[in-house]
Design goal:
The chain is an alpha/beta fold. It has a single domain, classed as Spore Coat Polysaccharide Biosynthesis Protein SpsA, Chain A, CATH 3.90.550. The protein is built from seven helices and twelve strands. β2 and β3 form a beta hairpin. The longest helix is centred in the C-terminal third of the chain and has 19 residues. It is globular. It starts with a strand and ends with a helix. The relative contact order is 0.17.
């Protein structure tokens, strides 16, 4: 079984404020993309990491990744206008012998390598699609026009993370169907769901949180410092 991990990193990250593309924002003095690639590359079961860079920024991304050496093969391809386009383009670039594909957000820089391996192992055990997820802790309300119209029961609600894992055959079929139908999903699992795939769930991890806004970046800095302190002791 050969495993490839795709990192769509072509987004600009407007909600994070002005500056470099989101994937190249610094976390602990190191670009978030590097943290994400390192987590994937250090996983025992990942053979190659493919980064989809913003069109025109491929050389810059390659240079950043070359500065911070990863312990496995890392490739850079040209991304698309949307996250979904970037995943599809990276998927098309994979070698024929790749059997399992992970898709991981560059904006989840602190996802542990153990979580990566857990997703791969679930696919290896026979699942065609796997997502890590955590139960929703907050009260959830449906709001329309600034007013609450419904309080949604939390039971059975989960917040989904990445990396998400798939058999290559399923992920390819899911993206092909989305192109034909003009469908845009918020994650790759949603593309698999709509063509009838069963999506398995493994426990997520609090440190796999997504960095979207400045507060998220500050929180990630705190988590990173705590992680480094634990290693020192």
């Amino acid at each position: 079984m050969r495993v490839a991990a795709i990192v769509p990193a072509a987004g600009r990250g407007e909600r994070l404020g002005p500056g470099a593309p989101k994937a190249l924002r610094l976390l602990g003095g190191v670009p978030m993309l590097v943290h994400s690639v390192r987590a994937l590359a250090r996983a025992r079961l990942v053979d190659v990491v493919v980064v989809a860079a913003p069109p025109g920024d491929e050389a810059e991304v390659r240079g950043v990744l070359d500065t911070y050496q990863a312990p496995t093969e890392v490739r850079v391809v040209t991304g698309g206008e949307t996250r979904q386009d970037s995943v599809r383009l990276a998927l098309e670039s994979l070698d024929p012998d790749v059997d399992v594909v992970l898709v991981h957000d560059a904006a989840r820089p602190l996802a542990p390598s153990q979580l990566v391996d857990a997703v791969v192992q679930a696919v290896a055990r026979g699942a065609e699609a796997v997502i890590p997820a955590l139960p929703v802790a907050d009260t959830v309300k449906r709001v329309e026009d600034g007013r609450v119209v419904e309080t949604v029961r939390r039971e059975g609600l989960y917040a989904v993370q990445t990396p998400q894992g798939f058999t290559r055959e399923l992920l390819t079929k899911a993206h092909d169907a989305a192109v034909i139908d003009g469908f845009a999903g918020t994650d790759d699992a949603s593309l698999a769901e709509r063509i009838g795939a069963t999506v398995a769930v493994v426990p997520g991890h609090p440190e796999a949180a997504k960095v979207t806004r400045p507060h998220d970046l500050a929180t990630a800095e705190h988590v990173l410092q705590e992680r480094l302190a634990r290693r020192e002791h």
